[in-house]
Amino acid sequence: MATDVFSALANPVRRRLLDALLDGPRAAGDLAGRFELSRPAVSEHLQVLRQAGLVREEPRGRQRYYHLDPAPLAQVGAWLHPFEHYWRGRLTALADLLDAEPTPTEKDTPA
């Protein structure tokens, strides 16, 4: 299932759909209106998210509402955790380099 989650998150449209669901459930039509995509294309993206367990679908009459289910994102966090130390160290080194006093260049030194 972790592979499904990573595959689902690999697409920027699907990440934007998840962002749209942060504020609460949304109807499929409302979600489709936020994108310059056809409704069937948005439905396909929602199906991928549903299969990955990132959203759940709730039929209400003729509409379908989608709810965010963040539980599978814990798998992503667990996978990313070891890399956090690496990137934190790299960013600290970059900040130290940028904060260092500038060294004079050849054109700054008298000839």
From TrEMBL:
Q: Which UniProt keywords apply?
A: DNA-binding, Transcription, Transcription regulation
Gene3D superfamilies this protein is in? Answer: Winged helix-like DNA-binding domain superfamily/Winged helix DNA-binding domain
Which CDD domains does its entry note?
A: HTH_ARSR
Which PROSITE patterns does this UniProt record tie to the protein?
HTH_ARSR_2 (PS50987)
* InterPro entries given in the database record: ArsR-like_HTH, HTH_ArsR_DNA-bd_dom, HTH_MetalResp_TranReg, WH-like_DNA-bd_sf, WH_DNA-bd_sf
**SUPFAM superfamilies given for it?**
Winged helix' DNA-binding domain
- HTH arsR-type domain ranges (all copies): 1-88
DNA-binding recorded as keyword: yes
- Please state what the protein is called: Metalloregulator ArsR/SmtB family transcription factor
Source species of the chain = Kitasatospora terrestris
